[in-house]
Amino acid sequence: MNIPTHTIAALSTPPGRGALAGIRITGDKSHEFFSSIISEKEKFKNESNRKITIYTIIDDNPIPVRADTIRPQNPNEHINSPTHDNPPVGAAPRGRPQNPNEQTNSSTQDNIPVVGANGIRPYVGANDIRPHATTPPQIIDEVTAIKYTAPHSFTGEDMVEIFCHGGPIITGKILDRLFRLGVHPAAKGEFSRRALLNGKMDLLKAESILGLIDSQTEKHHQCASMGYQGDLRKKVERYKQRIIDTLSDIESGIEFGEEDDVARSQLNTKKNLESIIYELEEELARGERVKTFDEGIFVALAGPANAGKSSLFNEILGFDRSIVHDRPGTTRDIVSEKISFEGVTVKLFDCAGIRETQDSVERKGIERTLLAVKDAHFILWVTSADFFIDDDEKKEILENREKILIVINKIDKISPALPVRADTIRPFPYEQKKQFCQTHNLNHIEISVREKTNTDKLFETIGRAVRGITEEISFPEIIINDRHRGIVISVLNELRQSINELDREEVSAHYLRTALNYLAEFSGHITNDEVMNAVFEKFCIGK
Q: Is the CB of residue 164 less than 8 Å from the CB of residue 171?
């Protein structure tokens, strides 16, 4: 496999405004390119590896650009060489008409392509710029940078990490400066891909990096961290060794086995393979359960119409996201937002109120609500203190009692002066709902979103529930994504075929060898380019 060595660069921190931004450069000429854009060239040349140092990034050939010369960049055009796609000599610079009286010449100064921070490529003609002698160097930023020399870097190549002030103009100017010198823009995941190709990590570790970045819960982070530290690879190797041991027993029987010994060996082989199959099936089952948590913990706000679900939804978020109105049926579709509770990502759903209605649009929203309730990891059943609970509401609550918290809202509408009715008379709605919760041992809390009564207590209760859900998650040991899931399914198929063919030992052994080849795909030792492309396409640029 050819290992690319050309120099690439990219922003390695999220774009936008911030205190700091990071830019990575890697490749065989990364030191040379970085030295070209700083004023302290000798200082960088003599600097020790892995030492952070202050430098001044300059543009010693700043190009003023007229507004009427700017045109959008064609994404299919190459941008790595300052002369790669110049217009023919004598042609008008693209973006403005040529003056027929304007003299042209063959200098590369006539048409200089410049790549801007936002993908804008201005073309500048000879009359648009001043002579170099009158254009002093421009200071772009004072930065800190770390110099790495191959193979002692993340990618295994010569590498520089720049930390500048975090603003799109500054990062755009620095990258623009590098690209004009001939540095290539990095593709998605290209830094990690080079680390893989240069033997700095295997595919399991590369995927674990993405897992660390995308972690939605503490358990997700722990699982990805295990992969990054090499624990997943060790577990895969243990499965591999068990299959190798079984394969060696079969092959020994082929070469040297007596008839009685072969029968006993087949029994042991079947037992060993069934044990591995059972463990891998458990892995798959855990993987399927965990897959539902990939986007975080799903929490649904459901209940009767006009109970205050949207008000509570907005209160939890801290801003107005859902429309709130006194008229029932205001929310007709599911509204969702992500929020963090105790460091756990929660996807919060504000659902349409459940009620009998002739409105076809509202009925569709109610159908979606019932599906959301079914799929939710946790339900906040919001019900109003001033309405009686009916049989349909009771049924929905009891069907989901294992994952539900009853939130009796609008307690500000209950007057403390009202007497509690005798048991022989129908109680007030508020008392009826409390009695229902107590009778069925249901967790409940009484709040007023309007008056913010007990809302802090509710948030604490939600936090505890979310933590409890994450603590109960049993994560798989070797499956952290769909690629791994597919490998395990393939291995299981081969192991089952091996058991079915134990009477034909050569065929049985063939299936075990195929299973070992599949296991090798975990680390990327046997992986085609399409698989690798699919893995690194999910990475961000700069990683």
A: yes
